[in-house]
Amino acid sequence: MVLLSKSTSEQFSYVRNNMPTTFSSTIPLVDLSKPDAKNLIVKACEDFGFFKVINHGIPIEAMSQLEFEAFKFFSLPLKEKEKGGPPNPFGYGNKNIGLNRDVGWVEYLLLTTNEEPNFSIYGKHTDKFRCLLNDYKIAMRNMACEILDLMAEGLKIQPKNVFSKLVMDKQSDSAFRVNHYPACPELALNGENLIGFGEHTDPQIISLLRSNNTSGFQISLRDGRWISVPPDHSSFFINVGDSLQVMTNGRFKSVRHRVLANGINPRLSMIYFGGPPLSEKIAPLPSLMKGKESLYKEFTWFEYKNSTYGSRLADNRLGHYERIAAS
Ligand SMILES: C=C1C[C@]23C[C@H]1CC[C@H]2[C@@]12CCC[C@@](C)(C(=O)O1)[C@H]2[C@@H]3C(=O)O
Ligand SMILES: O=C(O)CCC(=O)C(=O)O
Ligand SMILES: [Fe+2]
After folding, report:
1. Domains and CATH numbers, the chain
2. Which ligand is closest to the CA of 254, given by its number?
3. Quick one: average pLDDT of 224-240?
4. Which of 30-39, 140-149, 190-199 has the lowest mean pLDDT?
5. Whose CA is nearest to atom 10 of ligand 2?
6. Which of 197, 228, 239 maximizes ligand 2 atoms within 8 Å of its Cβ, making it the mutation to test the pocket?
7. Which of 65, 75, 169, 255 is within CB 3.0–4.6 Å of 49 for a Cys-Cys bond?
8. pLDDT tens digit sequence for 156-181
9. Contact, 89 vs 110, CB < 8 A?
10. Domain Fe2OG dioxygenase: where (predicted)?
């Protein structure tokens, strides 16, 4: 049996994989070109905090081109890539995630959406990647806006841009990430799965994920079971973030998700994290309270974001802000 070298295997977390991976056919599917999209979105956000989107208007060629440039970037020598690290808070990261000893079988680029990333350190051959990234970030913001508007319409709340105005704001604190999970051939043989990106919920409002056709992404259901999401390079996968859970007073649930490394193929994913301005108060919308009390103590995105950086990836970060019903 082939094993990872001791020093490598000790660093990482594994999950037992006694059962064959079950790909779920229950993932909600939303066709953005259909009139019932808004109702399906609301149902999916209540039941899963997660759904797949088709007919989103982003040409597959644009996604493939960016993917190609991203693979090219990750094939640079490690020394070269590390010139852009560590990712505190933005830049190139390898194995280490966040600031509190979380590790995964992953390397990544973490970028803000407000500033131009400093790619000059990588030289001319990354120019195309930088330009494509810029266009893509704008397309992602627009798609996030469209989906958030549909959520408000589906929830029958006014104005329809209550959510989307936060990610469209000039001061919006959104982020973008490109994750590369190299294939890990040793894995295919020993019946265990290496964690690529450990379980967590995304703290922002909404996340838009697009990956190549390599499996590994899983979501956790309410009963604690993990289900594998069949990859689809032509679609987007949408996650409800913690902030949207709070704004809907718990009606929408942020989804716990993780990535398992693949024994055969590398996985490449790109995620847009739509966040509010730092000074924004995150609290349930009055129109969704209907006389009920807020389930959460008030906080600003600045406070929540700071607290995420003090947490471990798998922590229940919202727990700290839950208001225990006074009785
Ligand atoms: C252990 C970590 C790593 C964090 C912060 C903290 C808890 C949640 C993680 C994420 C998850 C979503 C994207 C990200 C950019 C975010 O906003 O929260 C991640 C961030 C990072 O990768 O740095
Ligand atoms: O890379 C992926 O497919 C998902 C990673 C993720 O959940 C994240 O970066 O927040
Ligand atoms: Fe995530």
Report:
1. 28-321 (2.60.120.330)
2. 3
3. 95
4. 190-199
5. 202
6. 197
7. 255
8. 999 999 999 999 999 999 999 999 99
9. yes
10. 171-276
Which among 198, 276, 279, 210 is positioned nearest to 239, based on CA atoms? 210
Task: Report the share of the chain in percent with pLDDT over 90.
Answer: 77
Task: Determine the distance separating the centroid of ligand 3 and the alpha carbon of 286, expressed in angstroms.
Answer: 28
Which ligand 1 atom minimizes the distance to the CA of 273?
13
Catalytic annotation, residues: 267
* Tokens, residue 218: 């899983």
Sequence-distant (≥ 6) Cβ neighbours of residue 176 within 8 angstroms? 110, 111, 112, 113, 133, 137, 140, 270, 271, 272, 273
**What distance in Å separates the CA atoms of residue 243 and residue 19, rounded to the nearest whole number?**
34
CB 30 within 8 A of CB 53: yes
Query: What pTM was computed for the model?
Result: 0.94
Distance between Cα 292 and ligand 3 center (Å): 30
